[in-house]
Each structure stands twice: as C-alpha cells, then as structure tokens.
Amino acid sequence: MGRLVCDVALAPSAPRLTSPALAARVRATFPNLPRHACVNDAGDTFAAVMDCTPLPHLLEHLVVDLQAQAAPPDSDDVYVGVTEWTDEEAGRARIEVSFTDDLVALRAFRDAVDFLNAVVVL
C-alpha cells in the first residue's frame, strides 16, 4: 500500500472546524463516516468528534471513505489516514492517506474537495 501526502490550504473565510449542521449534511451523503475508526480524545470512532473537528480532518475521512467505496466488494483493504495542522492560523494542514491505486486516491481527493467546497459554501 502506498501513502499519498496532500498539503491543503483553507480559504481565509472558511471555517476551521466542522459544526453539527455541517456534520449532518455530510452524514446524509456519507452514512458510513461516523463509524470510521478514529484516534481522538473523545472516543474510538469519527462520530465522537464529527460535530467539531478540523475541516482537514473531515477531508481525510472523506478521502478514506471514497476509496473504500471504490474498492471491489471482495476487497479486504483497509485505508487509513492522519491529519495535522502545519499552520492552523493560516488554515494549512497536511493530510496523509494510504492507497492501493494512486488514480483512485487522487480521484477521491478531488471528489472529497468538491463535495466539501459545496457543503461549506451553503
């Protein structure tokens, strides 16, 4: 499995954190996201922090979920990721995700960013 590293920059006007309203919109389209395993201080799944987590962390989980959706039904691949701020004040973060197919991973990033841009602009 490979690792894809992406440096992201949030728009200056973009929120740094998710909100319960944003999380609800995300859950409507990505119902498996709350069940993702997630290392955090509030619990052992992404649901524990989904209502108030950095936007790049949400992007990481969207990319992982899109890759899992694209995998063959009989696949036992497990996709993982990690996100960290590189400059929180400036809205810059580094996201690393595992992948089995680089083109699927790049498409997942593109689609996740498109989705996130659409729901954050609402």
UniProtKB/TrEMBL annotation:
<feature type="domain" description="Cyanophycin synthase-like N-terminal">
    <location>
        <begin position="18"/>
        <end position="120"/>
    </location>
</feature>
<protein>
    <recommendedName>
        <fullName>Cyanophycin synthase-like N-terminal domain-containing protein</fullName>
    </recommendedName>
</protein>
<dbReference type="InterPro" id="IPR044019">
    <property type="entry name" value="Cyanophycin_syn_N"/>
</dbReference>
<dbReference type="Pfam" id="PF18921">
    <property type="entry name" value="Cyanophycin_syn"/>
</dbReference>
